[in-house]
């Protein structure tokens, strides 16, 4: 299954370029089992060999992440948790992961939309409790964009920096995904604290 997923991602992005990247990242953000941990390092490799360009690929991936997340948010906003869960079983949305996303949102509020982008299994699903809670849509979009941009940059950079050995990055990401998530969460928290101090200082 993992090998087939890898082959499919490579085929789509390699043959469809930016459009393939956009489609896959949109579907990933809708909580379909399409791992960004494969899509983005391979995208980095395609940038390395000159098939894609860094800035357009990054913008493409972030917009796709935002659109997919926004669709899931709006669906949850208008139909509610129980119906989303019923529909979700057809695309593999797990109640366990959905409950975890809800706990994250209840505990950390809006900022959880940023932090969850670094957590496999919760990354896309955080849109559901945000929608059910009727979080401000503009704030949701802002947080989604920030979290997606950080995550996408890191994974694209892994593939870009490793070049022909980009598949090694998949092993590293899967092995150290928890540490990577914690590191990125720590970075976001530090940035939030620094920003708040700045606002207080100049308020």
Automatic annotation (TrEMBL):
Tree of life domain: Archaea
Pfam families per UniProt: VTT_dom (PF09335)
InterPro entries (alphabetical): DedA_domain, VTT_dom
All copies of domain VTT, residue ranges: 34-159
Chief location of this protein within or outside the cell: membrane
Keywords: Cell membrane, Membrane, Transmembrane, Transmembrane helix
Subcellular location: Cell membrane
Membrane-topology descriptor: Multi-pass membrane protein
Protein name: SNARE associated Golgi protein
Organism: Caldivirga maquilingensis (strain ATCC 700844 / DSM 13496 / JCM 10307 / IC-167)
Lineage start: Archaea, Thermoproteota, Thermoprotei, Thermoproteales, Thermoproteaceae
